[in-house]
Amino acid sequence: MASLDSVLSCIDLNLDRSLDRLFDLLRIPSISTDPRYAEDCRKAADFLAGDLAAIGFEASVRDTPGHPMVLARHEGPAGAPHVLFYGHYDVQPVDPLELWTSDPFDPVIREDANGRKRIVARGAADDKGQLMTFVEACRAYKAETGSLPCGVTILFEGEEESGSPSLLPFLEAHRAELKADAALVCDTNMWDRDTPAISTGLRGLVGEEVVVKAANRDLHSGYYGGAAANPIRILSKIIADLHDADGRVTLPGFYDGVDEVPDDVKAQWNALNFSESDFLGEVGLSVPAGETGRSVLEQTWSRPTAEVNGMIGGYTGAGFKTVIAAEAKAKISFRLVFRQDPAAIRKAFRQFVEDRLPADCTAEFHPHGGSPAIQLPFDSPWIAAASEALSQEWPNKAAMIGMGGSIPIAGEFKNQLGMETLLVGFGNGDDAIHSPNEKYEMSSFHRGQRSWARILDRLGRGV
Amino acid sequence: MASLDSVLSCIDLNLDRSLDRLFDLLRIPSISTDPRYAEDCRKAADFLAGDLAAIGFEASVRDTPGHPMVLARHEGPAGAPHVLFYGHYDVQPVDPLELWTSDPFDPVIREDANGRKRIVARGAADDKGQLMTFVEACRAYKAETGSLPCGVTILFEGEEESGSPSLLPFLEAHRAELKADAALVCDTNMWDRDTPAISTGLRGLVGEEVVVKAANRDLHSGYYGGAAANPIRILSKIIADLHDADGRVTLPGFYDGVDEVPDDVKAQWNALNFSESDFLGEVGLSVPAGETGRSVLEQTWSRPTAEVNGMIGGYTGAGFKTVIAAEAKAKISFRLVFRQDPAAIRKAFRQFVEDRLPADCTAEFHPHGGSPAIQLPFDSPWIAAASEALSQEWPNKAAMIGMGGSIPIAGEFKNQLGMETLLVGFGNGDDAIHSPNEKYEMSSFHRGQRSWARILDRLGRGV
Fold first, then answer.
1. Residue A142 · residue A55 · CB < 8 Å
2. CB contact under 8 A, A226 and B299
3. Which keywords are on file for this protein (chains A, B) (predicted)?
4. Who has greater pLDDT, A118 or A266?
5. pLDDT at residue number A262
6. Where are the extended beta strands (E) located within A275-373?
């Protein structure tokens, strides 16, 4: 324990310097979905590879057809396990920019009403702040002990916010380099400020853009209205048809592979004392809008969804334009659970749309990522070890929770490399990731580093 | 007839100069719906007032809370009727700009495949080219005879493309100045290239923007998806509900005041040899998409509609963003026929939306213009006189037709000033008004001027 204690002290003493490094990374606008920021994505990758090399990793930037990967490796003591840590350096777009109280790429530290410090910037939580907690733990270990307690491979990708198109080919091409005993991911939340969490389930994701087209040009709604097909109306009808009155998705076969959560797991979830009214109230809502008769935790952790993430057609500027648009577009995503098949669901959706196209109308489809859900065994020894370490750092014992979000890599680690993935993150529910004024708590950043030091120490002593 | 002949010659000889004047007007980007072009709207008004004064009208620009009016007056011979001519100098927005083959505000003359010349610019047909046909007819009359054959008041507004908010108050405030024996409007189409048309019916319009709001900010569709209300989905459902399976509008009371067209009128329409397949085929369609069992002419001339003219919500940029939007917006318009009441329909729509809002959701409404339909008596002596004059200019006799579009002023002339409105225009169905590459045929511009000279001459001889 002597060396762990000195590592933890080292982290405490160097918090300001670790913040400087995080701020340098946050200043790079690495928005992966927008081609205008491709250079910045590479800049973020170069930054991270350089930083890992400085710590003592063998680190490199690897090109892909999209944004590059950062791959770094450091051997551990003989007999110790080897882990693969995954994070992503890309961030979400920042619109609507006018709702930010400061420049999203000029990080600042603010105090909240309770005097707690928070780091405000795009990517502060998702995922730059989180991934740096692990990097800083490794740095402190090396500084204090000259080594790491287990072998560590680090993989940072730059396309997580845009469907990870290069990830699977990269895993397939570098299986040997990436293979480890288990994977660690830091892209998730605490249960609450005092309770760390290990996520045992993650929803999968199918993203799809559909463009419905009718006339060969925009039409005057006076001359043609009543006779011409209106793509916005047709697309609206398709979207409306996607759910029944009970909030269930109507795609044929959609619920194939969806299990009911076992009663004992539901009992654990109930014991978490989750407040639906707080969860919804924080964003201005009060009633769960999903499937009738399901709790919010069920709706977001164990049930699949269909959501429209964006839609546009016709004239949307100031004033009014009496036009019938030639086309209308929607970005639609499905969150998947258990054994739902992303390919089958994409196919069913396309057929669903085709079946509803009236005469003279066509649909174009553009895929945006697809990944299955993952579901870990509750009795995994990796979970037990991480839980033990986390419970020493935080006031409360670690909670085993589900997750509504999707981290495609976790499913692929299982499929491609046969590894379990330990999802441990230090975000909070109000971090506003994907929204204006994203933040990461200073305590998340600080104790996150300490938590990883404890987990590495614990794993080094055997799983 | 001697003076009419010399006026017609004068028009023929001065065609190039009349084109120069039209081009000067077309170069002014008077887009009324976009506040950035307010100065240009005033510039267009000043241009027209100056031109009318140069002809010999008593002309002025009149301020309104929105864009200004142009009002001009020229007395006629004692005992001759006095007419009010109406047009609008404002134009539609130009997006999508990339589909224009030349700058929308740098007019050019192009030849089509048949060697016919066409004037290409935003507003070439709607309505700058059309209104200038009347102005040029007056100019030629004054040049050749020193007077006009009947009294003429001219009213040009600058808000026709954005719901005419200032028009009704202006009519109410200037009844005495505007009162005439009949109104003339040049904002409609020919039946075909050889057949002039007088429109006996015009659909009314109710424009409404609706904003559906749910959460107080954009949400991550992973964390909240399944539990949070999605405004795009809710608005899509509302839009889908607006029509039944037969294409009828489902708003309660929507069809109050909608008559069936008498059989003899339907017989006249059938005699026009209208080709549904040509009309739809020209814009890439083949099947009438409106109410089941109605012809295209019925659907566009005598039946009311509900159309979505624009819709937007969530992330619509490049790539994908897994967001649940805080709000979604749609611009919706209703075309009205016969005695449908715009106020009642606006109210019914708002109630329809409110009735379909789930818990935690609200709707905001922004009105964008409302006007009833107009329906002229088929036996009007004004129609007979105009028909006689038009039939002398063009190869074929004038057709009495319905109109799918809305010209709010026509209803208000009836309500406020007790006048019938004669709708005579020289546009063609492929003029692409409201679309990229709007054009006006050179023959429309030339023979339109000659047609107005003939109509003024004929009206001057008594109705």
1. yes
2. yes
3. Hydrolase, Metal-binding, Protease
4. A118
5. 81
6. 305-314, 323-324, 327-336, 362-371
Instruction: Check whether A263 has a pLDDT greater than 90.
Output: no
Residue B90: is its pLDDT beyond 90? yes
Per-residue pLDDT band at A223 (split at 50, 70, 90): confident
The residue ranges of every structural domain in chain B are 2-202+374-460, 207-258+304-371
pLDDT of residue A378: 67
Q: Which of B320, B332, B362 to mutate to test the interface with A (most CBs of A within 10 A)?
A: B320
Position B246 scores a pLDDT of 95
| Strand-pair partners of B73 | B58, B153
**Was domain B207-258+304-371 assigned CATH 3.40.50.2300?**
no
What's A2-202+373-460's CATH class? Answer: alpha beta
Average pLDDT, chain A: 94
**Cα–Cα distance for residue pair A270/B208, rounded to 1 Å:** 46
For residue A134, give the H/E element and its range. Answer: helix A128-145
> Which DSSP string do the residues of B299-357 spell out, in sequence order?
HHHT--EEEEEEEEEE--SSS---EE-SEEEEEEEEEE-TT--HHHHHHHHHHHHHHT-
Going by pLDDT thresholds of 50, 70 and 90, the confidence category of residue B270 is: confident
- Class of CATH domain A204-257+301-371: alpha beta
DSSP-assigned letter for residue B129: H
The answer to whether B34 contacts A240, with C-beta atoms less than 8 Å apart, is: no
Residues recorded for chain A = 463
Cis preceding-peptide flag for B81 (omega within 30 of 0) = no
Hey, what are B388's tokens? 């006689």
Which residues in chain B are contacts of A34 at CB distance < 8 A? 317-319
Looking at domain B2-202+374-460, which of 3.40.50.450, 3.30.499.10, 3.40.50.2300, 3.40.630.10 is its CATH number?
3.40.630.10
Closest in B230, B368, B434 to A307, CB measured: B230
Q: How far from each other are the two terminal CA atoms of chain B, in whole angstroms?
A: 17
